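Hi all, posting the design record for the shared folder.

TITLE: backbone redesign
STEP: 1 of 1
STRUCTURE INPUT:
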């Protein structure tokens, strides 16, 4: 993970039980979670060892801004430095998820063109309303690699209008974690897998969430098993 800044503010239904807020509270963070601030990891991909080699070698994949949002307004003054780092480390891959896809084009560097080859963007959609609003913008944005992130999935969503395999590399689905998590219905997940299979788009079920409803019964899944249990469902498909 590379988190050059930390902190976010809630903008839609999927943010209600944000894990950043939960973890900040658990660790007693002295700064409110809705305050966006630079971190000591700001230039992490450029760190070098005592031999002056990069600490993170060629081929490293960085999950970028997973405790904030790369496109958040408060980071506008810092973002150009991040693009400089991404450009310098073009031997590595960078992945970020956003709920602010409407801000993307105003946040891109001047040399972006149709996208940097080493950057993948995930657009987060938690319900049909957000899918209908965000995905048309997502598909029309200049990007080389796109992932739809249906997490936390809060209801059945019809993604078929946007499942163009020439534009969408993957759909990944997850439930919500934490004590107050809203339940994930397994049939929502299998329905989305069917949509992806019909349209020829890769599908991943990456996390069950804390509460999974299957065949009319609700199961509590401990945090340490939520990824492994999702994988055991055997729904992942590679196109």
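Okay, here is what came back for every position:
SEQUENCE:
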């Amino acid at each position: 993970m590379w988190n050059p800044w930390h902190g976010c503010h809630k903008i839609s239904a999927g943010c209600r039980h944000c894990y950043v807020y939960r973890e900040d509270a658990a660790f007693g963070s002295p700064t409110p979670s809705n305050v966006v601030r630079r971190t000591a990891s700001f230039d992490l991909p450029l760190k070098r060892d005592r031999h002056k080699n990069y600490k993170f070698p060629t081929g490293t994949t960085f999950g970028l801004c997973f405790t904030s949002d790369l496109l958040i307004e408060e980071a506008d003054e810092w973002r150009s430095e991040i693009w400089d780092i991404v450009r310098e480390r073009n031997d590595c891959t960078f992945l970020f998820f956003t709920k602010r896809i409407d801000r993307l084009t105003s946040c891109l560097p001047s040399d972006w063109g149709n996208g940097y080859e080493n950057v993948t963007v995930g657009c987060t959609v938690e319900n049909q309303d957000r899918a209908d609003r965000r995905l048309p913008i997502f598909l029309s944005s200049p990007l080389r690699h796109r992932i739809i992130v249906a997490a936390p999935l809060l209801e059945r969503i019809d993604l078929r209008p946007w499942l163009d395999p020439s534009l969408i590399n993957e759909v990944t689905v997850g439930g919500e974690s934490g004590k107050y998590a809203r339940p994930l219905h397994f049939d929502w997940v299998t329905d989305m897998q069917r949509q992806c299979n019909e349209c020829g788009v890769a599908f991943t079920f990456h996390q069950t969430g804390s509460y999974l409803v299957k065949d009319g019964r609700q199961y509590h899944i401990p945090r340490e098993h939520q990824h492994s249990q999702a994988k055991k469902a055997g729904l992942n498909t590679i196109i």
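COMMENT: The mean pLDDT is 97.
Let me know if anyone wants the other runs.
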